[in-house]
Amino acid sequence: MVTPVGDDLATLRTAAGWQQAGHRVAIATVIETWGSAPRRRGSILVIRDDGLFEGSVSGGCVEGDVITEARALLAEGTPARRLDYGVADETAWQVGLACGGRISVLVQPLADTGFPITVIDRLSAAAAAGDDVTLAIDLASGVTRTDSTGELLFHWPPPRRLAIIGAVHIAQALVPLAQGLGIAVTVIDPRGLFAADARFAGLDLDRRWPDEALAEWRPNAASAVVALTHDPKLDDVALAAALDSPAFYIAALGSRKNHARRCERLATMGYDTAALARIHGPAGLDIGAADPAEIALSIAAQLTASWRAVHPGKVAAAAA
């Protein structure tokens, strides 16, 4: 199974599959970072008893040592153990953490005595419902729970989704960028000439009108909607559906003049200034984009910035 970049839930599901196949599995989680640590807190690495692994806790710097420690933990049947790596530590230099930062990694067995399989089930159910989950780690016992009592609390937002309105050239460039960020993508376009399977290999296209498609798709707080058709009959109804939802990112392609006209049309539909301000128009960060690939990049960057403004990472707070 290929794990999308940044998709730690997919990594945990891989771990669950390994356990169901009869393997012993360990979960390694970054629990603290200082300085220029290569991976944020909450990042996940899963290790099988034969050494196969998925995910990352340092982008390659300390993975070898973490895997060795995890296999020893599984072989010995011991509880969770904390691993600390810093630039001043001899071991850290040996395993390659020379970036000047420090990290602490908690290694737990995939078991009720460490990281229970029921936690993965809870995260999967919440992802399907579009709900947030808080995981708590009790460092004394080394056990992770789905509540708010523990020394470390990790916030898991639901997985991101993106609805692209318009099977246009920019959409062709935006789809792989979003997928590379671990975002599930839907392309909506009722126009048969544009919505051709050959133009979006491997992607199921939704050929309904945007209002009908989005009514079933149901944008939630982890959803983004980007309108790219330049056609008010398609873009406006999609933007209206997005504005009626808690979508974290709403954007529309077009010049500032066209966007002003778009906002006037939406205002006649009852949307006030505050609501219309949620629409990024023109879509994307101003990077001087000059072709579809660069425009897609600017949109992906703005989408990411909007998400990180709300969800900077998995750590919610330190428990009282």
TrEMBL record:
XdhC Rossmann domain span: 162-303
Protein name stated in the entry: XshC-Cox1-family protein
Pfam families: XdhC_C (PF13478), XdhC_CoxI (PF02625)
XdhC- CoxI domain location: 18-86
Species of provenance: Sandarakinorhabdus fusca
Gene3D superfamilies, per database record: NAD(P)-binding Rossmann-like Domain (3.40.50.720)
